[in-house]
Specification:
Number of domains: 1
Strand order of the largest sheet: 1-4-3-2-5-6-8-7
Distance between the termini: 40 Å
CATH superfamily: Vaccinia Virus protein VP39
Order of helices and strands: HEHHEHEHEHEHEHEHE
Largest sheet: 8 strands, mixed
CATH topology: Rossmann fold
Radius of gyration: 17 Å
Number of strands: 8
CATH architecture: 3-Layer(aba) Sandwich
Number of helices: 9
Strand content: 15-25%
Structural class: alpha/beta
CATH class: Alpha Beta
Shape: globular
Length: about 220
């Protein structure tokens, strides 16, 4: 079921224009990504600090807290759903974060806007698991997406994933392992591990309060 469009959505997004950009989607994303419209990171952030990327930022709880804790980096947060993205933008604006910028659109289109070999770290926090096998290609750790991440990441870049879904986590491990990535710091129960400085997302808070384990891994190119 589609989420009902929020009242005054365009006006609210416009009020966040310093934090937000919509990238239009075309029918054929493979052709669309050939038309490069790279973001000028130095113009957006006013510096040349390292660029990190969160794909599927939701309401921005993780992105805002991470940006607040790490003023030495710049974070691009991507969210497909405008109704959700606007809440993240408003939160960043309220916090006065200058090192956080939002894109609204699908991950397939990222190579059109983000230069190759420019991202230090990609966060995949509680991506939709698409549990039915026929929808596997929509999972953000499907090998089609991993090829996009390889393109965007710097040589020593990493991907950090968190999820509550065991089957999605197993799928992700297999996809990473079969597509040129090595894994480290794998946790099958993050909140009962010795991992420090974890930033809890909206979904994570909900699932962990229900007693569900949180799975986490870090992937890097071999």
């Amino acid at each position: 079921m589609r989420m009902r469009r929020k009242k005054n959505l365009e006006k609210r997004l416009d009020s966040c224009h310093n934090f937000f950009q919509l990238f239009p989607e075309e029918r054929n994303f493979r052709e669309a990504v050939k038309k490069k419209e790279y973001l000028d990171f130095e113009k957006i952030f006013g510096n040349n600090n390292p660029i990190l990327l969160e794909i599927g930022c939701g309401k921005g709880q993780f992105a805002c807290e991470y940006a607040k804790r790490h003023p030495e980096i710049n974070l691009i947060a991507v969210e497909k759903v405008a109704n959700v993205a606007v809440q993240a933008c408003e939160k960043a604006q309220e916090m006065g974060l200058k090192n956080l910028y939002f894109l609204q659109g699908s991950a397939e289109y990222l190579p059109r806007y983000i230069p190759d070999n420019s991202i230090e770290l990609i966060f995949l926090n509680f991506s939709c698991p698409f549990p039915k096998k026929k929808y596997a290609l929509h999972r953000l750790t499907h090998h089609n997406f991993l090829e996009i991440y390889k393109q965007l990441l710097k040589k020593d870049g990493e991907i950090h994933q968190k999820t509550d879904n065991m089957h999605f986590f197993e799928f992700s491990i297999e996809e990473f392992s079969q597509n040129g990535f090595a894994l480290k710091n794998i946790s099958l129960d993050l909140h009962n591990s010795d991992f420090e400085d974890n930033i809890v997302t909206e979904y994570e808070d909900r699932f962990s309060s229900m007693g569900m384990p949180i799975y986490r891994l870090e992937a890097y190119m071999k």
